[in-house]
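Thread: "does anyone have the structure for this chain?"

Original post by V.I.:
We have the sequence but no experimental structure in hand. Need at least a predicted one for the grant figures.
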Amino acid sequence: MKYTVHQAKANLPRLLKEASAGKEVVIARGEKPVAKLTAIGAARKKRVPGRLAGKISASPDAFAPLAEQELKRLGFEQKNPRLHMRRIENRYADSIHPCFSTN
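Reply from O.Q.:
Generated one for you, tokens below.
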């Protein structure tokens, strides 16, 4: 369809619906076409929760901690947990409330 600038201003929501429906919308100044209104693309489908339920699965050990060998192979070294906790305690010693003391 061909519309004048004035008609396009007055009926923009309707023109947008036409364009999104795949119709060609031309806006003209007088008789000279100056713009074409087209849809950007198909609207995304509405997301449906649980659509992939039962199609994706994980093994029971998928979130289990990695073994020591696997951690080393991936470049992670096991730190001494007690030493690590001491560093954290020392770093935040001023901000730890007395009732949470680790002594």
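V.I.: this helps a lot. The chain has a mean pLDDT of 80.
O.Q.: and Helices lie at 5-10, 12-20, 68-73, 81-91.
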